[in-house]
Structures are given as structure tokens and as C-alpha cells.
Amino acid sequence: MKSFVVDTNVFIHKPDAILSFRDNEVVVPLWVLEELDKLKTFSDERGRNARQAIRLIESIGKRGNLSRGVRMENGSLLRVVLTHEKDIPVDLRQDSADNKILLTALTLKKEGRQVFFVSKDINARVKATALGIMAVDYEKQKVNLSDLYAGYRPEIVPAETLAALRSERRVPWHHEMRDNEFLVLSEKGGESAEIARYSAPESSLVLVERLENPVTGVSPLNDNQRIAISLLLDESIRLVTLVGKAGTGKTLLAIACGLKKVIEDKAYSRVLVARPVVPMGKDIGYLPGAKAEKLSPWMQPLFDNLDYIMSVYRNPAIKNSDWLLTNKMIEIEALTYIRGRSLPNQFIVIDEAQNLSPHEIKTIVSRAGEGTKMVLTGDPYQIDSPYLDSNSNGLTYLVEAFKGQHLFGHITLEKSERSRLAELAAEIL
């Protein structure tokens, strides 16, 4: 039986992580409970996850003795262990909770057990390896970014197929594909001619019509942006993910399409745009003023996109972005205030979703009420959260989990359209 020593940050990432280790021993060091006890008073996601983890451990502990081990439903044995290490390495400081957690793993290893130290902290894993302990990341919800579902693929077809698609707007297609996956169609040796979406119920390709007019002043500049707009304007698709590097137009397209559906089509009551408050560099600390004033620096990228849309959108009824905000046509919010709400009949855009854990993504998507469409955008290569990476963030996990669902659509935007300089920076830096 393997012994998995679980670090505190794993519980913060996924509160029920102990249920992931089947038919083995799961060890929770006492110092992990100490750290969870300190975190449980926080009002943010860390506090909520800490409280949930403690409650789960307590409920399992009621079935037996945690010091000797309690058998869980998945066949694993849960133990809470105190460290009793006599020969402590000289360089391992005892005033560090991380080191005391590592000492628990070291004690078990010296007892002859096959120990694995599970942590989201790279430095803690390096220290464990230096002590001769097998160290692993918690990979239950990891996705290989290089194999991430793109949402589209190029396809060479005969000229007759293209002609039939243009005339009938729909052609039979019996090749294996996922529902709402797109094909960029072309003849052999030719450039892309048409874009079609695969409909699984009918086993057919549906032509993606070319836009006759800009969407609130914004026009697509490449095939992938055309696909994105098609997904964003389709009311039957309730969940859309837009993944791409900086400057590919993810947030701009999402807000532009949301405004069209609210202002022109009256399909939703308002556009709600939110993003996690995660600093890229050193935090600027507490900010003065009311909620709107505190959020202003964090939400400035959203205001930049909104100001650009208003500069190109010609609608005499809309004066400026302030008019939209005052009349509740669009609301900009921090994700902190989303939890616990039920949001029906709204077009919701979650920006910078790569900074959210899979557990946070689940919490947010489950806020969607009847008639709501939810759009998540992000760049997996620009992650500011310390315990997430391009493979373990909630956005990529969501894409892989939902691909092929009838209510879901995804597209990876690849070409930066912000400027030649921005594209060059995204490619070579």
C-alpha cells in the first residue's frame, strides 16, 4: 500500500482531494490541519475550501480513529499523523510548517513505507526530493495543454461538397467529430473557402454565414474570430470558451457580441462582465473608496475594450459607456461578489478565467440561471495564481470536460490582431 502525504495547498486547490487516492493510505499531517485552521477564517475561496476540507475530514473521522486510520468508501485509509522524528536533518528549520509537513513524510519513509509527497508547491516538492522522498503534483484535474481541444480543424473537401454547402446551407457528414466542432473547408491546394459547424444530432455540417454587418462596430479579422462570433451569437449554445494568447480578441469579441444580444436582439437582460482579482506583480494593497472605486484599477482592461466598442459602434440611442453602465445594460463586477448569486437571463463574460482553479470554475458556471449564456476567456500561458499552471487551471479543465456537449462551444484563437508588435511579443518572448 502506498502512503500519500497530502500538503495543505492540495486541499485549497480541491477540498475533497483525499477522495482521489483509491485503495491506498492517505496521510494528513497534523500541521496541515493547523494551516487549514488558520485559513478557515478567510472569507475568500481559500477560506471556503479550508472549511470544506476540515468538514470532510471530520465526517470521515466519525467512523473510526483517525490516528490508527479510517477506511473510506473508495477503499483508501485516511490517517492524521503527528511527527515523531528523532534524527532531524540539520538544515531543516523547525519553525517552518512546510518543513514539519515534510518531516511527516520523512518519518513514514524511515518506517519502510512507500511514500509519495503530494503538493502544488514546486519548492516543497524539490525539498522533498532532496530528502529522498518521491514528490508529485496533484494531477487529478490536469490537462495536457499541447493536446487541448482546439474546437476546429482544417479539412480538404471536393468542390461539389462546397457547392452543395453554399446552396443548401447544410450537407450530410458522417466522419467522426464532436458536437459544435468547426471545419475550415477548402479545396485541395486552395485557401480556406467556407466554415461549417458539425451538428451531431443530424450528422451534418451547417454553413457558418458570413456577417453582413459588424457586431456593435466590431468585425472579425480571421477565420477563428468568425467562429468565435458564431458561437457567441448562437443562443442555443449556453457555454462558450475562448482560449488564446494576448491580442487575439477574446474579451473584445465577447463583450461586443454580448452588447448586440442585449441592446439589439433583446435576448438577455444585461451583460455581466467579471474577472478574478489576481495581481500580475506586487499587489498595490488596499484601495480607498466605494466598491466601484476599488474595482476600477482591476477592471480597467474591461473598460478599455468597452471604450473601443463605443468608439466604433454607431447607435444614436447609446451615448457612451457610462450610459450603458448607468442604465444597467452592462455591469462590471469582481468574481468575489458572484458566489451565491443566481443569474437568470444574462450574458455573462468571465475574463482571465485561467487564474481560476477547477473548483472555482465549477462554482462560477453553476451560477447560471435559466436563459443565461456564459462565456469564459483566458490565456493559459499568462497565469498569475501561484498554485496553478497552464495544465492545471480551471479554464483548460473546463474545455476538456465539456467538449462534445450540445450546449458547449469552444475555439482557440491563434492569431494576434492587436498590433504587429503585440503579436511579435507573444511569439518570441
In short:
This protein is of the alpha/beta class and 429 residues long. It has helices at 8-13, 30-39, 45-61, 97-110, 122-130, 159-168, 223-233, 250-264, 291-312, 321-326, 358-365, 394-402, 420-428, and strands spanning 2-6, 25-29, 70-71, 77-81, 114-118, 134-136, 152-156, 170-172, 182-186, 194-199, 204-207, 239-244, 271-275, 330-334, 347-350, 373-378, 408-413.
Features:
single chain; 429 residues; alpha/beta; Rossmann fold; 6-stranded mixed β-sheet; 6-stranded parallel β-sheet; elongated
Characterization of the model:
There is one protein chain. The chain has helices spanning 8-13, 30-39, 45-61, 97-110, 122-130, 159-168, 223-233, 250-264, 291-312, 321-326, 358-365, 394-402, 420-428, and strands spanning 2-6, 25-29, 70-71, 77-81, 114-118, 134-136, 152-156, 170-172, 182-186, 194-199, 204-207, 239-244, 271-275, 330-334, 347-350, 373-378, 408-413. It has 429 residues and is α/β, with parallel strands linked by helices. The protein folds into two domains: 2-136, Rossmann fold (3-Layer(aba) Sandwich); 217-428, Rossmann fold (3-Layer(aba) Sandwich), CATH 3.40.50.300. The strands form three sheets. It has a six-stranded mixed sheet. It has a six-stranded parallel sheet with strand order 14-13-15-16-12-17, sandwiched between helices. It is elongated, with a radius of gyration of 25 Å. Residues 279-284 have low confidence and may be disordered.
Q: Provide mean pLDDT, rounded.
A: 87
Give the tally of β-strands.
Answer: 17
Number of domains: 2
- What percentage of the residues does DSSP assign to strands (E)? 15-25%
Low-pLDDT parts are 279-284
Identify the overall geometry: elongated
- Percent range for helical residues? 25-40%
The class by helix and strand makeup works out as alpha/beta
Strand order of the largest sheet: 3-4-2-1-5-6
| Shape-level CATH architecture of the largest domain | 3-Layer(aba) Sandwich
The N- and C-terminal alpha carbons lie at a distance of 45 Å
Query: What's the order of the H and E elements?
Result: EHEHHEEHEHEEHEEEEHEHEHHEEHEHEH
What's the CATH class of the largest domain, please? Alpha Beta
Major sheet attributes: 6 strands, mixed
How many helix segments?
13
Reported by name, the CATH topology of the largest domain is Rossmann fold
What is the CATH superfamily classification of the largest domain?
Answer: P-loop containing nucleotide triphosphate hydrolases
- Taking all Cα atoms into account, the compactness measure Rg is 25 Å
